């Protein structure tokens, strides 16, 4: 008898739980309708009034304008279901096809698709122009989930999460190549988990922004994602008014996009060696007076990137802070003459950066004129890898206005001969460079060039080739340069100092012969 009663209670409870589950077909949605938004919205509203539940979208294609999710309502797209945005920009009541605003406990799930039709001529306004809807927008929400769905062909940013607390994005696919500004995932939220996603888009793959004053992007993880982009793979910025804090990026692959309908970098920039490329694999940018603190990036593989790593502290709308960054276990193949770089501006230093266990393969091919380029400061400029020009004067890493830098187990390889030094340090202080292997530059270029830098320790360098010069030092502020445990048996000249370098700048030269 107890078992029977228990079974009846479970049945009654199950009926109660599913009482608000609804199908859009029951509210008049039809595949041949020009706009199903009223029917879909009616299903969502009824579900919300009933206490919440699932709103099902069966297999089929349903045209719609904006639909607004409600608290405790979950939109489920069955396999074969397509919510297709209409192609009239003026028809959208909100800024996306599916919108969640000021709600909680909501989700979009299932193996169906939301299609923005972003390649339609009605949405072709140009870069950063025109009113174009996102595919999905969540704003001022809590406890949001997007899982398993396919987001396709957005007219603008594909999935935007702004000012939310508690976001899970799991196992989704994004493919957007029909328009300008087709970012994959844009995050301005806290307590966010993004995992197991495949993103292929024309603009930035995963982009963090603090463009809402007073709301910080913090406590975020991104893991196990494949990101293909014609712009930046993983980017912080450019909107950087608030704080990026306590963020982990791990176990991701970054590669070129499947299409390049909007831009072809090889035709636009000198030195690009592939038809389709990512701008920067990882881009960390603070230019609007904000702060970036405690960002950890680990286990990333990159292919066909112009620049593997771009870290920039500028002053477009105010001086900011960029500190406490760890980048480790990186394998990257570049396709340009735009080197990985870490740059601050005079008086504002990037601080506390660790680069560890990194293998860079560079295309090479720069000549002696490229090696002598003077890099402008461009303090107020839009941050991008090419902001200093199509070539930087180091082939491995260009580092300027940085304090407290640790570099361990760094390999820089060249696929073609190159006349630039491997590393340039300009106004860099408290540096440890340990156990590094590089291919040698051509001509008489040094392996490392140091300018106006202090408290620098080099150790653990080895080469099997004959090098003309290991280290060249310039600048009257350069001091306390410590060269230890360096194999100079294939180096013709250990160091060379410019006229302004003070005597005693190199206070230890302990080579291994």
Q: Quick summary of this structure?
A:
With 513 residues, this protein is mainly beta. The protein has four helices and 34 strands.
Distinctive features:
mainly beta, 34-stranded parallel β-sheet, single chain, 513 residues, Pectate Lyase C-like
Which structural class fits the helix and strand makeup?
mainly beta
Strand content: over 45%
Q: What is the C-alpha radius of gyration, as a whole number of Å?
A: 27 Å
| N- and C-termini, Cα separation | 89 Å
Q: What is the CATH architecture assignment?
A: 3 Solenoid
What best-fitting shape do the alpha-carbon axes yield? elongated
Largest sheet features? 34 strands, parallel
> What is the fourth-level CATH superfamily?
Single-stranded right-handed beta-helix, Pectin lyase-like
Kindly report the average pLDDT value.
Answer: 94
Number of strands: 34
Helix content: under 10%
For the record, the count of structural domains works out to: 1
Low-confidence spans: pLDDT under 50, at least 5 residues?
4-17
Question: What's the helix count?
Answer: 4
**CATH level-3 fold name:** Pectate Lyase C-like
**What is the class in the CATH system?**
Mainly Beta
Please describe what this structure looks like:
By secondary structure, the protein is mainly β. The protein has a single domain (72-511), classed as Pectate Lyase C-like (3 Solenoid). The chain is 7% helix and 51% strand. The chain is built from four helices and 34 strands. It has helices at residues 2-17, 37-49, 265-268, 368-371; strands spanning 22-23, 53-57, 60-64, 67-68, 73-77, 81-85, 96-101, 104-110, 113-115, 134-139, 142-147, 150-152, 159-170, 173-176, 185-195, 198-201, 206-210, 217-223, 226-229, 234-240, 243-256, 278-286, 291-313, 321-334, 340-343, 350-362, 397-414, 423-438, 448-451, 454-459, 467-474, 479-487, 491-497, 506-512. It has a 34-stranded parallel beta sheet that branches. It is elongated, with a radius of gyration of 27 Å. It starts with a helix and ends with a strand. The model is unreliable at 4-17 (pLDDT under 50).
């Amino acid at each position: 008898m107890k078992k029977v009663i228990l079974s009846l209670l479970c049945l009654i409870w199950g009926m109660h739980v599913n009482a608000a589950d609804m199908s859009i077909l029951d509210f008049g949605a039809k595949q041949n309708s020009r706009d199903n938004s009223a029917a879909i919205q009616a299903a969502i509203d009824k579900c919300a009034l009933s206490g919440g539940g699932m709103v099902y979208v069966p297999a089929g294609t349903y045209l719609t304008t904006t639909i607004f999710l409600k608290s405790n309502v979950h939109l489920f797209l069955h396999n074969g279901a397509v919510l297709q945005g209409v192609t009239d920009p003026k028809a959208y009541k909100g800024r996306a096809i599916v919108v969640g605003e000021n709600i909680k406990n909501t989700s979009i799930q299932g193996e169906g698709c939301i299609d923005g039709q972003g390649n339609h001529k009605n949405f072709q306004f140009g870069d950063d122009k025109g009113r174009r809807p996102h595919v999905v927008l969540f704003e001022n929400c809590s406890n949001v989930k997007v899982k398993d769905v396919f987001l396709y062909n957005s007219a603008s940013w594909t999935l935007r999460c702004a000012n939310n607390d508690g976001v899970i994005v799991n196992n989704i696919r994004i493919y957007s190549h029909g328009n300008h500004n087709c970012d994959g995932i844009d995050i301005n939220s806290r307590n966010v988990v993004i995992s197991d996603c495949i993103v292929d888009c024309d603009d930035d793959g995963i982009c963090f922004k603090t463009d809402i004053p007073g709301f910080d992007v913090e406590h975020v993880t991104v893991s196990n994602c494949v990101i293909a982009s014609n712009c930046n793979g993983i980017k912080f910025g450019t909107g950087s008014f608030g704080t990026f804090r306590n963020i982990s990026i791990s176990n991701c692959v970054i590669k070129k996009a499947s299409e390049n309908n909007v831009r072809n970098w090889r035709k636009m920039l000198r030195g690009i060696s592939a038809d389709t490329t990512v701008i920067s694999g990882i881009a960390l940018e603070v230019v609007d007076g904000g702060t970036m603190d405690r960002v950890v990036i680990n286990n990333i593989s990159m292919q066909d990137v112009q620049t593997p790593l771009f870290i920039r502290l500028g002053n477009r709308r105010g001086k900011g802070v960029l500190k406490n960054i760890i980048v480790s276990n990186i394998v990257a193949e570049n396709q340009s003459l735009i080197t990985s770089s870490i740059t601050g501006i005079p008086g504002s230093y990037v601080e506390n950066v660790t680069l560890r266990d990194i293998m860079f393969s560079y295309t090479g091919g720069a000549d002696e004129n490229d090696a002598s380029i003077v890099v402008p400061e461009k303090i107020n400029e839009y941050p991008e890898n090419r902001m200093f020009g199509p070539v930087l004067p180091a082939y491995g890493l260009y580092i300027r206005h940085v304090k407290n830098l640790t570099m361990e187990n760094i390999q820089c390889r060249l696929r073609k001969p190159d006349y630039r030094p491997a590393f340039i340090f300009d106004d860099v202080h408290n540096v440890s460079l340990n156990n590094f292997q590089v291919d040698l530059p051509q001509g008489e270029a040094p392996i490392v060039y140091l300018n106006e830098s202090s408290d620098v320790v080099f150790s653990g360098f080895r080469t099997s080739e004959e090098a003309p010069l290991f280290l060249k030092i310039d600048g009257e502020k350069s001091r306390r340069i410590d060269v230890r445990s360096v194999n100079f048996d294939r180096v013709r000249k250990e160091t060379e100092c410019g006229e302004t370098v003070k005597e005693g700048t190199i206070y230890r030269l302990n080579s291994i012969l």
